[in-house]
Each structure stands twice: as C-alpha cells, then as structure tokens.
Amino acid sequence: MNTTSKTQLPKIALAAFAAAVLAGCSSVPLDENKAGAPVESRSTAGAGSTAPAQSTVTPVDVAKTDSTALSNLPRVVFFDFDSYVVKDEFRSTVEANAKVLTADRKKKVVIEGHTDERGGREYNLALGQKRAEAVARSLALLGAQSGQMEAVSFGKERPAVQGSDEAAWAKNRRAELVYR
After folding, report:
1. Residue 111 DSSP class
2. CA 158, 163, 17 angle in degrees (round to 5)?
C-alpha cells in the first residue's frame, strides 16, 4: 500500500461513518401519517373483533387548572427503544395536558425529549427532538396552539435514572412536559 492510500483510508472511513449516522438520523420522516403525528395503535381486541377500543382518559376539570390540578397532571410520555412514536398507553397523558392548554391559552409548556445512554451524542439529540416534537404535534391535534409549546432535546444528557440495564434505559426514553 502506498502512502497516498494510507492517508486517504481514514478519511474515507470517516466519511462513510458520517454518512451512515446521518442516514440513520433522517431515515424516518416525522410526518408518518395524514394527521401529522406518529401515533401507535395497539388494539387489545382479538383478530376479527369489531368491538370499539375503549379509551381510559382521565377527565380534567377545565375550571380547575390551578397549581393543584397541574400537580396531579401526568407529565411523562415514555417511548420504545429507538422510537418516537407516541403509544396508545400515553394517550390519556397527552389528552389531559391538551385540555389544560386549551382551557388556558396563556399557559406554556416546554416538552423535553430524552433518550437512554446508548447511541452517539448527535443521534440522541436528534431522537430526543423527534420525541418532543411528536408529543407537541399530538397536543396540537387536540387543540393546543403552537405558541404555547416548545420542543427541546436533551438527548442522553439528563437521565432520570442511573444505570446500564433495560429498566434504567426504559425510564430514560421519555418526553417530559414542563409548565412555565
């Protein structure tokens, strides 16, 4: 091998790695369905069943959007590994927060996207942003205004739980709704 190819090999490997990382970060568009927010639907009814899905939404009294109502409000949406799909089991969390935001247009929420420790810094920042934006789009579909919401990503920088096992990782893959 001559000297020219020895110096070009690391450059080619670096370029290939960067292309692979960028392709992985942008391989799934955020607008996967017609409504605009990726929402996963998992029906517990058996195959061929025509029974409608039951919603387990906890009602929020819109007259009581004071600090007591906000303190009892669920504010965390958890995600599967390498996913930013808002799962059905967190529909009630999103709906309750949307009701608070639609009842009081002065309220603002920051949606913080987080990931587990696996993956590179840039990839996790992008995934955390997609998670925060998915929750924001779900809130917008339910009536919250875009001016009331801000989506930010912390990637793997602010873990909720320390640890390198599936239990810790599952608690760190989340979006938190923080009212300002």
Report:
1. E
2. 70
Return the DSSP state at 46.
P
**CA–CA gap between residue 114 and residue 128 (Å, rounded):** 5
DSSP 43: -
- The SS3 assignment for 86 reads strand
Q: Report the C-alpha gap between 169 and 166 in whole angstroms.
A: 5
Residue 66 φ then ψ, to 5°: -75, -170
CB 123 within 8 A of CB 28: no
Give the pTM: 0.64
How many CB atoms are located within 10 Å of the residue 145 CB? Answer: 12
Q: What is the pLDDT of residues 84-128, one digit of tens each?
A: 999 999 999 999 999 999 999 999 999 999 999 999 999 999 999
- Could you tell me which of 74, 89, 102 has the C-alpha nearest to residue 39? 89
Q: If you average pLDDT over residues 125-132, what whole number do you get?
A: 98
> Which domains does the chain possess?
60-180 (3.30.1330.60)
Residue 174 is encoded by which pair of tokens? 């989340």
Beta strands in 49-143, from DSSP E residues, in sequence order: 76-78, 86-87, 109-114
